[in-house]
Design brief:
The structure holds 2 protein chains of 2 kinds. The longest helix of chain A is centred in the middle third of the chain and has 32 residues. Chain A has 22 helices and 2 strands. By secondary structure, chain A is mainly α. Chain A has one domain. By secondary structure, chain B is mainly α. Chain B folds into 2 domains: 257 residues, no CATH class; 256 residues, no CATH class. Chain B has 21 helices and 2 strands. In chain B, a hairpin with a 4-residue loop joins strand 1 and strand 2. In chain B, helix 2 runs parallel beside helix 4. The longest helix of chain B has 32 residues. The radius of gyration of chain B is 22 Å and the shape is globular. The termini of chain B are far apart. The chains are: A mainly alpha, B mainly alpha. At the A-B interface, helix 19, helix 20 and helix 22 of A face helix 5, helix 6 and helix 7 of B.
C-alpha cells in the first residue's frame, strides 16, 4: 500500500525535514573528512542544510494547508490547528538552526549530528500536531523524545549535561510507557484508537477513564505539568542552552497540541478532566513560580519559569471553550518566541562551557552591552506579561477564556502568579541595569546568527503584542474547526 | 492629538543635546495641551476631542481617546510638571542622561495616555506602560536603597493592576466591549446589570488597583520608600501625577460603573481615608528625613481626596478634583525644594540642617510659601481644595469631616515644625553656613510654581467651571445616590456656581469646617 500523492502532500513539511536531516547525516562524514585541518567547511554544510531544511519545511506548510482533510486513512488530520502548530514548531527549528552554530563552534561540538537530530525531532513534533490516531501520536512523540534525549547529552564532557540526559531519558521512558499503556486501555475500552471514533464506539467508560488518566500522565510529563514537572529544572539546566531553547518550546507545543486534540475530540475526556486540569494548573503555576524565586542561576530560573508557563496554558485548557483553544495556540506561539530568545541570549552570554549563568554574572550588563540587555529585557518583560508584548496578549486571552467559562478563582490565581513571576523576572533586569558589573564582559562581537535570532524574536514579540489580529484570526479559526 | 505627541517622544533618543531637546518636547506638549484649554467647551457633559480607531479585532479593542472636565486639568498638570522636572534634574543627573530623559518622557506619555483613554483595555495598557519608566527612574537614578524601593513599587502596583485586568475582562465578558462610553450607557440603560456580589467583586478589583496607587491607608507602604529613593524629578512626577491616577481611576471607573457597590463600601473607604489623613500626618511629624516627611504628607493629602470622592457630593467631588491639582503643584514644589537642598548637601536628614534662612533667604521664603499652601492657608490653593472637600463632606458625614479637619491642623503642625527646625535658629552645622541660595534656574522654577499656587488659590472658579459639568455627569451616572444625597447635591451644586467663589463662601459659612 503505497501512500497517495495526496497523503504525501499532507506530510510535506515532515518530508522536507527528514530529507534534510538524512542529507546532513550522509554528507557530514564526507565533508568533514575532506575539510583539511579545521572542519569549518563541513560545519558550514550542516548549518546551511539545517537552515534550508527548516525554512523549506516552513515553506512546505503551504502544501498541507491547501490539502486539508484526513490523510493516511484517517491517521492524520490536516486542519488549521495542525497548520498553526507546524508554523510554530518549524519556526523554532529555524531559530535554533540560526542561533546554534556559534554555540557549537565555541564548545567544539560537531555540527552534523546536532542539526540532523534537531530536524528529526521537529519532524516528530510536526506529526504529533497532526496525529488523530493515538499510536501515530505515540510514534511521533518517541521520534521527538529520543532525539531530545540525545541532544540533552550533547555536551559529552559535561557532567551536568550527562546527568540531565540520564534523568530525562529514564523519566521520559517511564512517561512514554504510561502513555502507551493508556493507549492500550483506551483501545480496550472502545476498540479503536482513532480519536473521533472513540466516543461512538465506547463500550467501557471506566476503562476509558483509566486509559485517559495514564495518557494524561504521559503528556503531563512532556509538558511539565505538576505533579510531573520535577525533571524539568535539572534537564533544562544541564542541557546545552540551544537545546533547552528547543526543548522548552517545540516539544511542549506539540505535546500540548496532542493533549488538546484528545481533550476536545473525545467528548468523554473533557468532562472528567476538568478538575484534574484545574488542580494541576494551580499546582504547576505555584510550583514553577515559587521555586523560580529561589534560583540564582538565570538558566535554572528560566527552567522553572517554563513550568509556570505550562501552568498558565493549562488554565486555558481548563476553560474548555474555543477562546481557550485559541488562547493556547496564541500563547504557544508567543511563548516559543520569548523562550527561544531568552535561552539563545543565555547560551551566548554563558561563555565557553556555559560558565556565566548566575544572576551576578549578569550584573551591569547594560553598561557594556546595552542592545543585548535590552533584548533580554524584552523577553523577560514579555514572559512577565507586560503590555505591548506578545506575552501580555497571550495572558490576556487566557484570562478571557477563563472568565468566559466563569473560572474566576482560577483567573485570580493566575493573576497572583503573574505578580510572583514579576519578582524574579525583574530581578534579572535589576541586575543588568542597576548593579555594578562584577566581571569583565568580553567585548567580542555578537555572532551574526545570534543577532539574527534576537532580532527576529524581538520583532515577533512586538508584532504579536501590537498587531495580533492576523495570528489571532488563524488561532481562532483553528479552534473553531477543532471544536 | 496626544497620539501625535506620544510619537514625538520617541525621537528623544538619538540627540546630542538631549536635555534641551527633552525640554523642548515637553514644552511643546505643554503648549499643545494648553490649546486644549481653549477648545474645551465647559458646558458639554460628554467627552471632547475624541479619537477613535480600530486596533485589535478580536477581542475588539479600539484606540479611543478623549477628555472631559475631569481629565482636562490632570493632563495639563502632567504637561506642566514634566518640563519642571526636566529642569529640576538639569544638573543633578550626570549618568546615562539620555536614558533618564527618555524614561521621563515615556512616563509622561504613559500618564497622559491613562488620563485620555476611553477604552478600558487601552487604559490598562498605558497604566502598565508608565510603570516601566518609573521603575527605571527609581532603580537607576535613585538614592541608596533604590533597588529595594523600585522593586517594591513595581510589585505593589502590579498586584493591583493584574487584578484590575481580571476585572476589566470580566466586564468585557459581560458587556462584549472594552469601550468605556458604551459600557456606561449599557449599565445606565439597565441592559447589563450585576448581582450585588459580582458588583462588589468587580468594584474591588478596580478599587484595589487604584487604592494601591493613591495610596490609601493600608496600602501605602511602598510610597515613602519610592519617594525617598527616587531622584527629584521622579518624586515630582510620582507625587504630582502618578498618585492622581489612582483617584482619577476611582472617579472615572469605580463610581460610575459600580455605583451600588461604591455606595455600599463608601463608609469603610471613608474610614480608611480618614485614618490615612491622620496617620499620614502623625507619621510625618516624627520623620527625621525631610523627603520622607513630604512623602507621608502625600498619604495624608490624598486621604482628603479619597474622602471627597466617596462623599459623593457635587462640592466634595469637585473639591477632591481640585485638591488633586493642588497636591500636584504644592507637593511637586516641595519635592523640588527638597531636591535642591539635596543637590547642595546630599542628605535629607533634618538634623543636618538648621538656620538655613540665613545663608539662603530666597530659598527659605519659597519653602515657607509652598509649605503654607500645602497646609491650606486661605488665599493659596491648598485651602480651596480642602475647604471644598470638607464642606461637601460635612453636609453628609459630619464626623468624617470633623476628623479630617483635625488632619488639617496636624498638617500645619508638622510643616511648620519642620520649617522651624530647618530654617530658623542659628546655623548649627558648619557646612550649611556657606550654602548657595537658589540660582536663576531654580528661582524661575519656583516662581512658576508659586504663581500657580497663588493663582489657583484666588481664581478657582476658572477651574471649577470647567470641571463642574463632568462631575455632575459622574454623579448622575451613579443613578441611585445615597438616601439623603439628591437634594443636598442639587443645592450644593447651585452654590458652587461660578461667581460664588469658594473663598467668598468662607465669609458666609465659616463654621462649616471648623469644629
Amino acid at each position: 500500500m503505497f501512500p497517495s500523492t495526496q497523503d504525501l502532500m499532507c506530510v510535506a513539511p515532515e518530508l522536507v525535514l527528514c530529507v534534510a536531516g538524512i542529507l546532513i547525516m550522509v554528507l557530514d562524514p564526507f565533508v568533514v573528512a575532506s575539510g583539511s585541518g579545521s572542519h569549518r567547511g563541513g560545519r558550514r554544510v550542516a548549518d546551511v542544510l539545517a537552515l534550508l531544511g527548516s525554512a523549506g519545511a516552513l515553506a512546505a506548510i503551504v502544501l498541507p494547508a491547501t490539502h486539508q482533510g484526513t490523510a493516511f486513512s484517517g491517521l492524520l488530520r490536516i486542519d488549521p490547528f495542525s497548520i498553526f502548530l507546524h508554523i510554530v514548531v518549524c519556526s523554532v527549528a529555524f531559530l535554533v538552526a540560526l542561533g546554534a552554530p556559534s554555540y557549537l563552534d565555541r564548545e567544539g561540538l560537531p555540527h552534523g549530528e546536532f542539526f540532523a537530530l534537531v530536524l528529526f525531532a521537529t519532524a516528530g513534533m510536526g506529526v504529533m500536531a497532526t496525529a488523530q490516531e493515538l499510536i501515530t501520536g505515540f510514534v511521533a512523540l518517541e521520534v521527538s523524545s529520543i532525539s531530545s534525549y540525545i541532544l540533552a547529552s550533547y555536551r559529552r564532557e559535561s557532567k551536568k549535561s550527562n546527568e540531565a540526559a540520564m534523568k530525562y531519558f529514564l523519566l521520559g521512558s517511564f512517561a512514554s510507557a504510561f502513555f502507551l499503556y493508556g493507549i492500550a486501555l483506551v483501545y480496550g475500552a472502545s476498540g479503536t484508537s482513532i480519536l473521533p471514533q472513540i466516543d461512538a464506539a465506547l463500550v467501557h467508560p471506566t476503562l476509558l477513564t483509566l486509559g485517559l488518566a495514564l495518557i494524561f500522565v504521559g503528556l503531563g510529563f512532556k509538558v511539565a505539568a505538576a505533579p510531573f514537572q520535577l525533571w524539568t529544572p535539572d534537564v533544562y539546566e544541564g542541557a546545552p542552552a540551544p537545546v533547552t531553547a528547543m526543548m522548552s518550546t517545540g516539544p511542549k507545543a506539540a505535546a500540548f497540541a496532542l493533549f488538546l486534540r484528545i481533550l476536545t475530540v473525545v467528548a468523554h475526556a473533557g468532562a472528567i478532566w476538568f478538575w484534574v486540569i484545574w488542580i494541576s494548573a494551580v499546582i504547576t503555576m505555584f510550583a514553577g513560580n515559587l521555586a523560580a524565586i529561589a534560583q540564582t542561576s538565570v538558566k535554572r530560573m528560566l527552567a522553572y519559569s517554563s513550568i509556570a508557563h505550562a501552568g498558565y496554558i493549562l488554565v486555558a485548557f481548563a476553560a474548555r471553550n474555543e477562546i481557550g483553544t485559541a488562547a493556547v495556540l496564541f500563547y504557544l506561539a508567543a511563548y516559543a518566541l520569548m523562550k527561544v530568545g531568552a535561552f539563545t541570549t543565555v547560551a551566548w552570554l554563558g561563555g565557553s562551557g556555559e560558565r556565566y549563568l548566575d544572576l551576578d554574572d549578569y550584573a551591569g550588563l547594560a553598561h557594556t552591552r546595552p542592545v543585548t540587555a535590552a533584548c533580554l529585557s524584552i523577553f523577560l518583560l514579555s514572559l512577565l506579561g507586560l503590555p505591548v508584548t506578545a506575552g501580555f496578549l497571550g495572558k490576556l486571552y487566557i484570562f478571557d477564556a477563563a472568565l468566559h467559562s466563569h473560572l474566576v478563582w482560577l483567573a485570580v490565581i493566575l493573576a497572583i502568579n503573574s505578580v510572583i513571576g514579576a519578582y524574579y523576572y525583574l530581578r534579572v533586569i535589576v541586575a543588568m541595569y542597576m548593579r555594578e558589573p562584577k566581571r569583565t564582559f568580553s567585548t567580542e562581537k555578537i555572532p551574526a546568527g545570534v543577532a539574527a535570532v534576537l532580532t527576529l524574536a524581538v520583532a515577533g514579540i512586538l508584532y504579536l503584542g501590537l498587531f495580533p489580529n492576523r495570528i489571532m484570526e488563524l488561532a481562532s479559526q483553528a479552534a473553531t474547526l477543532l471544536h | 492629538m496626544a497620539g501625535a505627541s506620544a510619537l514625538l517622544l520617541l525621537q528623544g533618543r538619538d540627540h546630542v543635546w538631549i536635555r534641551r531637546l527633552a525640554l523642548t518636547i515637553s514644552l511643546a506638549e505643554l503648549a499643545l495641551s494648553a490649546l486644549l484649554l481653549r477648545g474645551f467647551d465647559a458646558a458639554a457633559t460628554g467627552y471632547q476631542f475624541e479619537e477613535l480607531r480600530d486596533w485589535i479585532a478580536q477581542p475588539p479593542i479600539h484606540y479611543h481617546l478623549g477628555l472631559d472636565g475631569i481629565s482636562l486639568f490632570l493632563v495639563l498638570l502632567t504637561t506642566l510638571l514634566t518640563p519642571i522636572s526636566i529642569l529640576a534634574s538639569w544638573k543633578s543627573i550626570h549618568d546615562r542622561v539620555k536614558g533618564f530623559f527618555f524614561a521621563l518622557l515615556m512616563l509622561e506619555a504613559g500618564v497622559i495616555g491613562v488620563f485620555l483613554s476611553l477604552d478600558l483595555f487601552l487604559f490598562f495598557l498605558f497604566w502598565e506602560m508608565m510603570l516601566i519608566p518609573m521603575y527605571f527612574l527609581i532603580g537607576i537614578w535613585g538614592h541608596e536603597h533604590r533597588i529595594y524601593a523600585a522593586v517594591k513599587f513595581v510589585l505593589y502596583t502590579m498586584l493591583g493592576s493584574i487584578l484590575m485586568i481580571v476585572g476589566i475582562l470580566w466586564l468585557y465578558n459581560a458587556t462584549g466591549t472594552f469601550d468605556l462610553p458604551v459600557i456606561q450607557s449599557l449599565l445606565q440603560s439597565g441592559h447589563v446589570s450585576f448581582s450585588q456580589h459580582t458588583e462588589l467583586l468587580l468594584f474591588g478589583s478596580f478599587f484595589l488597583a487604584f487604592a494601591i496607587k493613591v495610596p490609601l491607608f493600608p496600602f501605602h507602604t511602598w510610597l515613602p520608600d519610592a519617594h525617598t529613593e527616587a531622584p527629584t524629578a521622579g518624586s515630582i512626577m510620582l507625587a504630582g501625577v502618578l498618585l492622581k491616577l489612582g483617584t482619577y481611576g476611582m472617579l472615572r471607573f469605580c463610581l460610575p460603573l459600580f455605583a451600588d457597590a461604591a455606595h455600599q463600601l463608601a463608609p469603610y473607604i471613608a474610614v480608611l481615608a480618614v485614618i490615612g489623613i491622620l496617620y499620614g500626618a502623625l507619621v510625618s511629624m516624627v520623620q527625621t528625613d525631610l523627603k520622607r516627611l513630604v512623602a507621608y504628607s502625600s498619604v495624608s493629602h490624598l486621604g482628603f481626596v479619597v474622602l471627597g470622592i466617596f462623599a459623593f457630593g457635587q462640592i466634595s467631588v469637585q473639591g477632591a478634583l481640585y485638591q488633586m491639582l493642588n497636591h500636584g503643584i504644592s507637593t511637586g514644589a516641595l519635592f523640588l525644594l527638597v531636591g535642591m537642598l539635596y543637590d547642595r548637601r546630599h542628605t535629607f536628614e533634618i538634623r543636618q540642617y538648621g538656620g538655613l534662612a540665613t545663608p539662603m533667604p530666597v530659598y527659605a521664603g519659597f519653602f515657607l510659601f509652598v509649605s503654607l499652601s500645602s497646609l491650606g492657608l486661605p488665599m493659596l490653593n491648598g485651602f480651596v481644595g480642602e475647604f471644598l472637600i470638607l464642606n461637601g463632606t460635612w453636609q453628609q458625614h459630619a464626623l468624617w469631616a470633623g476628623l479630617g479637619t483635625v488632619g488639617v491642623i496636624f498638617s500645619s503642625l508638622y510643616l511648620l515644625w519642620v520649617y522651624q527646625r530647618v530654617f530658623y535658629g542659628d546655623v548649627t552645622n558648619e557646612k550649611n553656613s556657606s550654602l548657595a541660595d537658589a540660582d536663576a534656574r531654580e528661582r524661575s522654577l519656583l516662581w512658576v510654581m508659586a504663581a500657580f499656587i497663588l493663582f489657583m488659590g484666588v481664581a478657582s472658579p476658572l477651574f471649577t467651571r470647567r470641571t463642574e459639568a463632568s462631575v455632575q455627569r459622574v454623579l448622575q451616572q451613579m443613578n441611585r445616590p445615597a438616601p439623603n444625597a439628591p437634594v443636598e447635591a442639587q443645592r450644593n451644586f447651585a452654590s458652587a456656581r461660578p461667581g460664588a467663589s469658594p473663598v467668598a463662601q468662607l465669609q458666609t459659612s465659616p463654621g462649616a469646617t471648623v469644629r
